[in-house]
Amino acid sequence: MARMSLSIVPLAAGLALVALPALADRSTPEQAKALATEAAAYLKEKGPAAAAAAFNDPKGAFVRKDLYVFVFDSKGHYVASGANPKLAGTDASGLKDAEGRPIVASMMEVTKASPSGVVEYVWLNRTSNKVEHKHSYVIREGEYLVGSGYYSD
């Protein structure tokens, strides 16, 4: 019986090592906040057209590991999405998460009382291809809402 127990230990250790790279690719809340803050400053400095071009570049400086920048205008239209640049110009004002909760409306609400905040929702993680809990750090910059989010599942 002791031999069977010992043979399980290497298997468990091997499985743990397989899971480590997936966890290592996950961004932290601090990284999401830093990216959103950097993007808001870039938008303020360069203006909406140059910022949208930079944010919409999936291989650019504003896409890092599982993080990307997204921007909505005051009406809830996508200005940029590093995850899917084709969304630019589309109406996201009624966008809801996998549990039916409003996303963009919640982001707009949280930035009414404060220039920044965090919104939690359930969203497709394109890295894992699973629906997971996501927390997006959002910043109001003029008439725009700039954000980046990390997954917690």
SSE layout and pairings?
Blueprint lengths: L1 H23 L4 H18 L1 H8 L7 E2 L2 E2 L1 E3 L5 E4 L22 H10 L2 E10 L4 E12 L2 E8 L2
Antiparallel strand pairs: 1-2, 3-4, 3-7, 5-6, 6-7
Helix pairs in contact: 2-3
Keywords:
single chain, alpha+beta, two-stranded antiparallel sheet, 4 helices, 7 strands, globular, disordered N terminus, Single Cache domain-containing protein, sCache_2, signal, cell membrane, membrane
Describe what you observe in this structure.
The protein has four helices and seven strands; from the N terminus they run αααββββαβββ. The protein has a single domain, classed as Beta-Lactamase (2-Layer Sandwich). α2 (29-46) packs antiparallel against α3. 26% of the residues are buried. The chain has 153 residues and is of the alpha+beta class. Strands 4-3-7-6-5 form a five-stranded antiparallel β-sheet, with helices on both faces. The chain has a two-stranded antiparallel ribbon with strand order 1-2. The radius of gyration is 19 Å and the shape is globular.
Question: How do you describe this structure in short?
Answer:
Its main location: membrane. With 153 residues, the protein is α+β, with helices and mostly antiparallel strands. 39% of the residues lie in helices and 27% in strands.
